[in-house]
Input
Amino acid sequence: HDIPFFCPHLNSAHFEVEAPDVPPEFWLRMDLAILCYAKAVLLLPDWHTSKGALAERDAAEGLGIPIYYPSSGSLLLVRDWHQGGIQ
Output
């Protein structure tokens, strides 16, 4: 089973150099627009130190999207996906 993914950080990496006049909130709004299509969210270590990750976590909670936390989240996500728990 393949697990498609979207990494918000990589989606706009280095855009602050390419488009320095665009505020970070613009990129966050783009990420949140894509998040509404997510089947699950996997947070990475130190996610709680990122304003973007906090906003994405809050949005996922509001949308009822399952959230997997760093301690064992990636293993549980793979298990749930493999067992068909995430469609």
The two ends are 12 Å apart (CA to CA).
